[in-house]
Specification:
Blueprint (H helix, E strand, L loop, with lengths): L2 E4 L3 H13 L3 E6 L14 E4 L12 H10 L4 E3 L9 H9 L3 E2 L4 H8 L1 H10 L15 H11 L3 E5 L8 E4 L2 H19 L4 E5 L5 E9 L5 E13 L2 E7 L8 H17 L5 E8 L5 E7 L6 H8 L3 H9 L17 E8 L11 E2 L2 E3 L6 E5 L6 E2 L6 E9 L2 H14 L1 E3 L5 H7 L3 H5 L6 H5 L1 H6 L3 H4 L3 H7 L3 H4 L1
Parallel strand pairs: 1-2, 1-4, 2-3, 4-5
Antiparallel strand pairs: 6-7, 6-8, 9-10, 9-12, 10-11, 11-14, 12-13, 14-19, 15-18, 16-20, 17-19
Length: about 475
């Protein structure tokens, strides 16, 4: 039995703790001074106090976490996603101290964490890359020269980081001149490095990613792809697997997935990871980046393949055999859709902290709800506004959509504003249902505007509240 420290919180900490316990190991949770409730601790076998009042003092504080590990004889660490999950220095420190990191080795994280380096590696591996600069661009003059060669529009983006920060689309030379220094400043303030790339901007792109699973014996498998094109501010809102845009084009699917495997093999990858691609209207695809961690949207891949990604990344880190021993074992069965349930306004899509008064979960066969909710829990601005992930699986896409619509009609989180109404509108919108939507979907089709136009009585998504309001006290009991 290994003592495995989960340096995270919320629903991903619960998901990891359950996987650790199922494998017969000892899940260790952490709690901080600025979280009034920590539902994930219920799923851990022991708890450690990570002292501090901010993320920088706790979840991002490497020396403090290393001391906890040393003081409590921790064998392994699972970072979840976010926080230190892709911090090569943290992983290197664990490796230096003989502590197992449940994720890839530090060199893979370091090389894939820099967009310029990862693009170079992808190109060397024979993976298609977006036309543009090979490495960092040193000056605005160099950026202009490359922009003219690859033709406008172009994208200026920071070599480090993600989440849509440090990115500007430029339609002409003047916009490159005006944006170059601004991108560098934003990159420096957000990621501590001001490196910038210039790339061809793909019009009406699809964001499609491939799930990778690898062990320490050199085996690399793919678990097919996910479509993540419903986005706001470059952050995902709805994901589905497999991609409806690829559809029944199995030749394209195989080419895409094998490109992801090639890249992972090139960096001797040894864990769960995701290779992200951008695909144009012509179905030409290009490497975007690699996320060297478990993804928020991993449940939809688990649902269509039956592969437990979290348990297998733990097995891989411990040097054990994974459930999967050949690519042929991994097959697509059905279709799955995930809606990210967030504490945010469904129209503006801006965070909306508050307090959960009560919640009702959908009880629908084929529906999975990964969450960290509890009644009277405060949702603060200290963390990402995502509260939960609603996942529906059907034998095909139409069945999955139908099931998700019903699940959303039953889901209620009262006391604070959520984006449930937005998801309801997306799941019945014509273009989404047709399955050919790009990353400009929310901008062009604006299901959020239909939320705004709903009558006040329809904005109350209290499915269960309406039932309860018709019950007398005896019936309630």
């Amino acid at each position: 039995m290994k003592k495995i420290l989960i340096v995270n919180r919320g629903e991903i900490a619960i998901r990891v703790a359950q996987a650790v316990a199922e494998l017969g190991h000892h899940p260790v949770g952490v709690w901080t001074d600025f979280e009034p409730e920590a539902p994930h601790l219920e799923f851990c076998q022991s708890w450690l106090h990570l002292a501090g009042q901010t993320n920088s003092e706790t979840y991002l504080n490497i020396p403090k976490i290393l001391k906890l590990i040393q003081d409590h004889q921790i064998d392994a660490v699972h970072p979840g996603y976010g926080f230190l999950s892709e911090n090569a220095k943290f992983v290197q420190a664990l490796e230096d101290n003989g502590v197992i990191f449940i994720g890839p080795h530090s060199k893979a994280i370091e090389s894939m964490g820099d967009k310029a380096v990862s693009k170079k590696i992808a190109k060397e591996a024979g993976v298609p890359t977006i036309p543009g600069s090979v490495g960092e661009v040193a000056s605005v003059d160099e950026a202009l020269k490359i922009s003219k060669e690859i033709t406008f529009p172009v994208l200026l983006k920071a070599t480090a980081g993600g989440g849509g920060k440090g990115m500007r689309v430029c339609q002409n030379e003047d916009e490159v001149k005006n944006s170059f220094d601004a991108v560098r400043r934003e990159a420096l303030s957000s990621f501590g490095h001001d490196g910038v790339l210039v790339e061809k901007f793909i019009v009406n792109p699809h964001h499609i990613e491939v799930q990778i699973l690898a062990d320490q014996q050199g085996n690399v498998f793919h678990c097919y792809e996910r479509e993540c094109s419903v986005q706001r501010r470059h952050q995902k809102v709805v994901e589905e697997a497999p991609s409806p845009f690829i559809g029944q084009d199995w030749q394209l699917r195989e080419k895409l997935c094998q490109s992801a495997v090639l890249l992972a093999q090139n960096v001797k990858y040894n864990s769960a990871g995701t290779v992200e691609f951008i695909m144009g209207e012509d179905k030409q695809f290009y490497f975007l980046e690699m996320n060297t961690r478990i993804q928020v949207e991993h449940p939809i891949t688990e649902e269509i393949t039956g592969v437990d990604l979290v348990k297998n990344m733990i097995r891989s880190a411990l040097g054990e055999k994974m459930d999967v021993s050949s690519q042929d074992q991994i097959q697509i069965r059905g279709h799955a859709i995930e809606c990210r349930i967030c504490a945010e306004d469904p129209v503006s899509m801006l965070p909306a902290p508050g307090k959960i008064h009560r919640f009702y979960l959908p009880r629908v066969p084929g529906v999975r709800f990964d969450h960290c909710l509890m009644n009277q829990m405060a949702v603060t601005s200290d963390f990402d506004p995502m509260l939960a992930k609603l996942v529906a699986k059907g034998w095909d896409r139409s069945a999955a959509i139908e099931k998700m619509r019903y699940a959303l009609s039953q889901l209620e989180i009262s006391g604070l504003t959520t984006n449930i109404l937005l998801h309801r509108e997306i799941l019945k919108e014509e273009v989404f249902c047709a399955g050919n939507y790009s990353t400009k979907y929310l901008e062009e089709h604006q299901p959020q505007k239909r939320v705004e136009s709903l009558p006040v009585e329809q904005r109350d998504h209290g499915f269960m509240s309406k039932i309860f309001s018709h019950l007398n006290d005896q019936q309630r009991i």
